[in-house]
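Before going further, learn to read the protein records used in this course. The integers have meaning only within a learned vocabulary of local backbone shapes. The record below shows the convention in full.
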Amino acid sequence: MVKHLNPSKLRKGTKHNINVQTFSGANVADMRYYVKPAISKSPDYLLLHVGTNDLKRQTPQQIAGSISTLCQEIVKESPNTKIVLSKVITRSDDSSLDSKIKELNCKLSQQHIQCPTRITNTTASLLDVILTYYGDDKILDTGVIHLGISDHSLVYLCRKLSIPKAPPKTVFTRHYKNYNVNQFNNDLSEVFSLPLDSAILTDPNALWNDFKNKFLSVADKHAPIRQSRVKSEYKPWLTNEIKQMSYRRDYLKKQSIKLRSAYYDKAYKRCKNKLNNLIKETKQEYFRDKLSNAKNSKESWRTINELLNKKPKTSE
């Protein structure tokens, strides 16, 4: 179908620079390489017609996922390019693929809102939609909320997100286990009793570096620097009840392993589940109250970043 388009007529009719390229037999994976010359020129629009050649070997879900990945890679390489995705057309050579084509097209332009979004006394119309080309495995919930701020109701979609864990925090401290103040003072006296190089006597920066290096060399000998990882940061939602139940859970776990007891094993699992639910409820209550009491958008975003383990940006 695409190969019969005449680029020169399209350019003449639209007054735009239009190029048409076809790749016979190419599948979605092949197009990852075929589109590179086109996106290297950062076009304003890129119309893709892909997926037909994958129908015999892959499921509609797999093809939709591959097309989604292809579009994401194009956006990454050429952020200003707008992608127009063509539906897969029916194949005349194999009518048995018609059902797969219909399913694939539904996944490429899936409409998640099914309830009316504008309701009056006499009509109920679905005007506001949410279209995605992702699979249902990432969509948790969709719906319509009727608010009074507009005659169009609010539409929403909840999508699975993985909240990143906070990176481990490391601190550097000096180890004073074998530190002896008398030996430290003696070594300092010995180091600083050595004559200075005449070349640095008139340079205060060189003198400072000489002093610093000598002092740190002695300090590293008597109190070496150790790197340690801070296991956790301050968590305001961590209550005494959670701490006590954590100790109880760990105790039951140890007893279960030590005694090989079914009684302690069941008690441990009950305590673990109860603790997990308590942590979830306590965190929800903490962040809900903090968001409700936020005085402005800045405080709201600070709370959201805290929830997502994002550090606030600092300006120098």
